[in-house]
Amino acid sequence: MDALHISLATLIFLVFLALVFDFLNGFHDAANSIATIVSTGVLKPYQAVMWAAFFNVAALFVFHLKVAATIGTGIVDAWAVDQMVVFAALVAGIAWSLITWYFGLPISASHALIGGLVGGALVKAGPAALQWEGLGMVLAFIVLSPLLGMLLGGGMLVLVSWLCRRQMPRRMDRWFRRLQLVSAALYSLGHGGNDAQKTIGVIWMLLLAAGVSQSDDPVPLWVVVVCHLAMGLGTLFGGWRIVKTMGQRITKLTPMGGFCAETSGAFTLFVATSLGIPISTTHTITGSIVGVGSARRLSGVRWGVAGGILWAWVLTIPSCALIAAMAWELGQFFLP
What is the rounded CA–CA span in Å between residue 243 and residue 29? Predict the structure, then answer.
């Protein structure tokens, strides 16, 4: 791919915009990491966000950048990427994150970003610009990640309940309060590993388009570090509107149920990140919470709330593609 002429000011502005999106991703998805541990009373909110933020940042030492490579090269063909496409994708991701945060809806910031990339690329170059294999994988895991989380969460609760059937409830409650610290840490580690890499992939895509980096170069270390730090900082501020939806409105969680939901969600994220699959951490933990609630009894899940969340998921990619298309047109007027 021939390097584009992108001014230094534009490059700095778009990197800053990507970090704003990353911050909002952490802010919006803080609920995923802390809702269960807060709703069960294991940690107070300010303790939970500090715990989650630490492990969001620590993920940079654990995972290879396979998800970043998928976002950077596997969704939109390199020849179609320019500053307008990146700008449109980031504006769409930021706008959708703020809109859904206002209504307390736990949506996927990563799918918002992917929808933005699709919308910007379609306006610029049409369907030929899309990598259909990579996009198909993302669309498949919109369905598979919550289903896997639900099956693992429900199955784990059944197994753990059977193993602990002869134990005193008070003793088990005390033990699972401690174990939730571990499961929440693992989930936050998986969240940081998968979600921070999506912003890393966008910045890398931009650096490749500008000719600052070459395709066979490693991702610059500063990109990896600042993206994890931005996500951790966003998590510290927390999206409290969404915590209530995730931790209380879908189903009532106990420490045992919270442990099972977080552990099954963490397992799903670790596997997906190791395979380079950009999945939704929101979809994963929501599926796990629904699985835990339905394993106790189907009426234990507020299906109306779950249905509202599902509609937000369905609308994310097309809505963000539309916002990105409008942002692409807007960018023509002021973005050099």
Answer: 9
